[in-house]
Amino acid sequence: NPNRLYKHQQLQVILKPTPADVLDQYLGSLNAIGIDLRKHDIKFEEDNWESPTLGAWGIGWQVMLDGLEISQFTYFQQCGGVDLDLVPAEMTYGLERIVGFLQGVESIYDIEWAPGVKYAEVRLADELQHSVYNFELADVPTLWKLFDTYEGEAQRLLELFRSYEDRIRFPLLAAYDYVLKCSNTFNLLDARGAISVTERVGVIARVRKLAVGVTQAWIEQKTPEAAEVSA
Asked: Per the confidence metrics, is the pTM higher than 0.70?
C-alpha cells in the first residue's frame, strides 16, 4: 500500500473543552490549507479509537477525503483507565496523506520533501530497514527479556512512589516512559507473531495495569494532599 507507513508524521490537535463549532473548525482547517471542500467528497465514517495497553479510548470517526483517510476525529472518554470529567476533542491530521493529496501524487514516496528532493530519498531506507527488523529479524527472546525488564522497572517506581517522602519531585514521567517501552515492545512481539491469541489478552492486561497505576499516581501527585505529604 503506497499510503501506509511504519513511521508516519501526524499533527495532533486537542481542544478542551470541546467547542460547540468543533466540526466547523476542523473543516475550516482543511479549507485553510488549500482543500476546496466544494470540489471534493468528505465523509465521516464511524471508527472509535482505542489503545487497550494504555487504557484509553474515545468515540470517533475517520475522515475520508475522496476515499482516502486523512484524519481521525475523536472525543476522548477515558485515559489510563480514568473517566475524563471534561471530554476533549482530538483531531489527528495524517500529514503525508494530506500533502500527497495536495501535490496530486499516487504514492507518498513521490511527495516533494523539498525542491528537487522526493520523500523516498529521505525516508525510504528508514522505512525499509525498520520493517525488515520488525517483521523478520527482531530477536523474540530478547524482546521478551526487554518487556520483563521495562515492566519490572515501571513496577518498582510505582511501588517506591507509595513510600517516597517528596512526592512532588517523584519521577512518574520516567515510570510512564517505561510503560511506553512495554507497549512498544508488545507491538514488536506482535509484529513477529510471537504472541498467541490466548497470550495476547494477558500481555495487554500487564501493560494496562502499569498505565492505570501511573495515571492514578499522577492524580495523587497533583492533588493538595500530595503536596502536604511532600511538605
From this structure: yes
